[in-house]
Target: 4-hydroxy-3-methylbut-2-en-1-yl diphosphate synthase (flavodoxin)
Amino acid sequence: MSDAPDQPVTQASPAPRRSRQARVVWGERVVTVGGDAPVRVQSMTNTDTVDVIGTAIQVKELAIAGSEMVRITVNTPEAADAVPAIREQLDRMGIDVPLIGDFHYNGHRLLSEHPACAEALSKYRINPGNVGKGEKRDRQFGQMIEAACRWNKPVRIGVNWGSLDQELLAQMMDDNSRRAQPWDAKQVMYQALIQSALQSAQAAREMGMDPNQIIISCKVSGVQDLISVYQGLAERCDYPLHLGLTEAGMGTKGTVASATALSVLLQQGIGDTIRVSLTPQPGEARTQEVVIALEILQALGLRHFNPSVTACPGCGRTTSTTFQELAKEIDDFLRAQMPVWRGQYAGVENLKVAVMGCIVNGPGESKHADIGISLPGTGEAPAAPVFIDGEKALTLRGDNIAAEFHAIVENYIRQRFGHAA
Model:
């Protein structure tokens, strides 16, 4: 053990990524994926794609929440016919978010027989395990790549362990059984996932696909499995990688599992676009998965989307709920205002606000924030000092602390970020 207090502590930061860069385009909107682009956020609708208005509304909600690409199911001729209408509705609403078509089993026919659908989509998701078997697989996969080349669309070759190419898996199991020391079944599964993706990518390139327009994913549902597969995948290719657990789950389980797996990989410099596949709670908005994805990237310091609010969890010193209510009010207030502020105040997403509940850490945390308030804890004087840029600026008292602090925050934003805009 080293005893060197005078040596600096290594500062943690995500490792640099080394992938190619793809371009997902609709009109003037260009979303770069990979290379030096920010890690992108994706989501997927859960509406019936045939419901043009309902799907367009949900796409709009996801886009406003922060999703930079939105995937929709294209599973029937009726759904394929609806895609251009959905795109038209979005364009009328001023929503230029690129649409990704999610194809399984019959994607080759839908893209070939519905050219308006192929053109209206900005990217195709192809699952190698669901494009057919034997010679039919090669032909049908080729039809989808041909459509991508014809319309100049990128593709995501998305392998999923729930629908892995069974012929490839069986072959690899047979090969493994002949090893002097066979691998365990899970290791063979990992290799099969990676090989399916890379072999399909190579086949697409041989058919004329631009290698810079190929994105890869190998989705599984276990945290450690996802980390293992993507570490192996990143060692073997430089394609942009799409991260996400295939069935993360519901509520806290899905949130924690996604945050854990994605954070480990992103910290290692693995991953160029993410999706949190969260099962919505009854009555919960679909946009919750986008909120969580944004929070993961912001917590890692990879991107900033909304001002951060630091708040203490509370203890025996804070039996009053005042600071909890104020923290929620401030957080809700900042999120609600961000769609407006983002266009008015450049850099406002980097704002740091602290709402603390007692004298122990309150003043210190408030000083570290851009603007902070330390509310009185149990038995403390009914006074709330406000700190601005590390200095105590004033003290609030009385029954209108929340409203007064709101006004102080708004004034600070105007003064600090208004000039930048």
About this structure: The mean pLDDT is 94. Residues 15 and 269 are 4 Å apart (CA to CA). The first strand starts at residue 21 and ends at 26. The chain is about 45% helix and 20% strand.
